[in-house]
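Chain A, query sequence.
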Amino acid sequence: MQMSLSFSLFAAPLVLRCEIHQDDEIFLVDFLPGSDPYSAEAKEINDRFQFKAVVSGNEQDIEYVKIYTYYKEQHQVVLLHEVKYMPPFRQGEPSFAALTGVNYLYAPVMERELQYGCALLEVRP
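Chain A, predicted structure.
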């Protein structure tokens, strides 16, 4: 019992890594856990989309993961997709999309496609 407690205290920190495909480009983005969901910044994707993940909690204990995808229409940003993941999280699979699976999203204007998948990964120092 003592060993499992020690192991959990020294577990590698977690990070959410998302692989985003848009217009024949691939973006790899890491999102770190935090306590303030409003401080998470969106990643610009080809000046057509914005992608944001909120990883609530700390490096060893994630409370939830929320993912937001927006598309940019003229002079405004419009929410296209929102999803929330709660524990227990799928981990340990070799897939880049172990947590979310692969998602396909389409902007209503010009039907531009964005694909993404995310996984919670342990980060070794």
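Residues 1-8 have pLDDT under 50 and may be disordered. The radius of gyration is 16 Å.
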